[in-house]
Specification:
The complex is a heterodimer of chains A (364) and B (189). Chain A has 364 residues and is mainly α. In chain A, 68% of the residues lie in helices and 0% in strands. Chain A has one domain. By secondary structure, chain B is of the alpha+beta class. Classes of the chains: A mainly alpha (364), B alpha+beta (189). The interface between A and B is medium-sized, with 26 and 26 residues.
Chain lengths: 364, 189
């Protein structure tokens, strides 16, 4: 056991170092910005993180409330937030006595580091000729990398989606487990069932003895979500409360393309988000043309499903999507495009931090 | 030995598959059979109610023979988005407001609702209380509109007063909202 772990470490030594270096540089940049701005680290846990902190410290709400004054109709509750991240933070909270917010920031950063590594590993398998440093830097220094450090689900989602795709190439049961955790992180994770089916189709037809394992792996994917639904039913009487409570945030599902196209005629910020969302639809097309249908379908779902409820928060759903980041890394590896990209992305990341400190709407 | 292991693993995985299928059936059943209050169902699940369950609980009864302004917590507005100092402008061709009447205060009648309104130019208006037509009026300038109610049209508990405004119109360039009427106050006698 120990020797196999040592062998794994030896095999991945270079990628681990690259991931750690990029993570540390990202954290150094954050440290400098926080100090220069005189901002408190605890203040990094805001917006959604504050909701998660409530779950870490007190569990799920027993009834809707006004969300600290943000919901005057008293119709909001933390039931809309999926349990994987708060459960991980709650474990740290129980073991260390750290506050809910601090626990979320710590586990979020740990997941950020692991997500960079998992992404680099995935990139090295899908596109071996891609420079791993470039792949790591795309995760760590894109403008929306801020969500890796502020107690949001994004780094856990990236970590688990990369783990899912890595496992899909090796072991269907492991892929099922990764998919199960992914579905406990965000609803769209449950749709990893589709890339799983695509990947399993060949082995299913070829090897009859493997079929039980393939089916078991598939059935594992919605397991965590199913447990969460039963829990919500027990707590609220409504297993789909996580979806129905979106009304408190004025998010009701619609046609994603219509929403994006309508966004092109709204405020400059909405125009920017809409253009970004439409551009992201090139990614599934790119992977489909390369016959990597698992990545194509996953990317399509991860873009269209959140887009169907509005443009709000689309940037983080796009910039923490493994296929989008992979396509971006491949794209900027041509010639010296990466110089152009990071020349714009780094100031963008600094801008996002300043926006976060100011509580600006652009970062939510 | 290896065959026995394989058979055992196969049995185990088939049992797990069966258990997971049964579990998902149970989850699906609970998902389509929510056990929630009618107010929760109407607001969150069906989206047919603009008032949250909390707002229903908070709605204070309308005091008889006294005027209630646009900021009064005894009135709930839907389709009256432009809120000013004690007034509200509608936005669209229909608007409604909900108020509660205490059963003890509801005498045999006759009852009337009196509204203080300011229309945008001249506006036709059709009024319904709990789905029943109670008046058609053309409004011009600051108006006091008295709507006499037939016995039984006002009910104990929540009542919905809905107005249809066919002459609502957009004012100014780049403005998408349709305006018709400003609500200044309501009195129940």
């Amino acid at each position: 056991m120990r020797s196999s772990a040592a062998a794994w470490l030896r095999r991945n030594d270079r990628l681990l170092r690259i991931a750690a270096a990029c993570f540390l540089l990202n954290q150094l940049l954050e440290f400098v910005l926080v100090r220069l701005h005189g901002f408190a680290y605890a203040g990094l846990c805001a917006f959604d993180c504050a909701w998660y902190a409530g779950i870490v410290e007190h569990g799920y709400d027993s009834a809707p409330h006004d969300g600290g004054g943000a919901h005057p109709k008293h119709d909001a509750a933390n039931w809309v937030f999926f349990p994987a991240l708060p459960l991980a933070a709650r474990l740290l909270h129980a073991l260390s006595g750290l506050s809910g917010a601090a626990s979320l920031l710590v586990v979020g950063k740990l997941f950020f580091l692991l997500a960079i590594f998992a992404f680099v590993k995935l990139a090295s398998e899908i596109r071996p000729q891609l420079n791993p440093l470039l792949a790591a830097a795309v995760v760590a220094f894109n403008p929306y990398a801020i969500y890796g450090s502020v107690g949001y689900t994004e780094p856990l989602f990236l970590l688990l989606s990369c783990s899912f795709f890595l496992a899909l190439r090796r072991d269907f049961l492991a892929a099922g487990l990764a998919g199960c955790l992914l579905a406990c992180t965000r609803l769209v994770g449950a749709f990893s069932v589709l890339p799983y089916l695509i990947a399993a189709w060949g082995p299913w037809r070829r090897a009859r003895p493997q079929r039980e394992y393939i089916l078991l792996g598939l059935l594992l994917i919605p397991l965590g979500l199913g447990v969460f639904l039963l829990y919500l039913h027990g707590l609220t009487g409504d297993a789909l409360a996580f979806s129905h409570l979106q009304r408190a945030w004025n998010r009701t599902p619609g046609n994603p393309l219509a929403i994006a196209l309508a966004g092109l005629h709204q405020t400059p910020l909405e125009k920017y988000w809409a253009a970004m969302s439409l551009l992201a639809l090139v990614v599934p097309l790119y992977f489909a043309l390369r016959r990597q249908f698992e990545l194509a379908v996953f990317s399509l779902l991860c873009t269209l499903l959140p887009l169907s409820t509005g443009l709000w928060a689309m940037p983080r759903y796009l910039w923490w999507q493994a296929p989008v980041l992979l396509a971006l890394a491949i794209g900027i590896s041509h010639k010296k495009l990466w110089l152009l990209f990071f020349g714009a992305a780094l100031p963008g990341l600094v801008f996002m931090y300043l926006g976060w400190f100011a509580g600006a709407v652009v970062v939510v | 030995m290896k065959t026995r292991m394989n058979t055992r693993m196969k049995t185990l995985s088939r049992t797990a598959i069966g258990a997971l299928c049964a579990f998902y059936l149970a989850v699906a059943w609970t998902a389509v059979h929510p056990q929630v209050s009618p107010a929760y169902r109407a607001y969150y699940i069906e989206g047919s109610d603009f008032m949250s369950p909390w707002q229903h609980r908070q709605l204070a009864p309308l005091a008889p023979a006294s005027e209630h302004g646009a900021d009064d917590p005894a009135l709930m507005f839907d389709g009256w988005p432009a809120r000013g100092d004690g007034q509200r402008w509608n936005g669209g061709r229909t608007a409604r407001l909900v108020f509660r009447v205490d059963g003890h205060a509801l005498t045999a009648g006759p009852h009337a609702l009196t509204l203080r309104l300011l229309p945008l130019g001249t506006q036709a208006s059709e009024w319904r209380l709990n789905g029943q037509a109670i008046g058609n009026r053309r409004l011009q300038g600051a108006s006091v509109l008295r709507l006499d109610l037939a016995p039984g049209s006002l009910r104990p508990g929540e009542n919905e007063l809905r107005v249809t405004l066919p002459d609502a119109r957009v004012v100014g360039k780049g403005n998408l909202r349709m305006w018709a009427l400003r609500f200044d106050g309501l009195r129940w006698d």
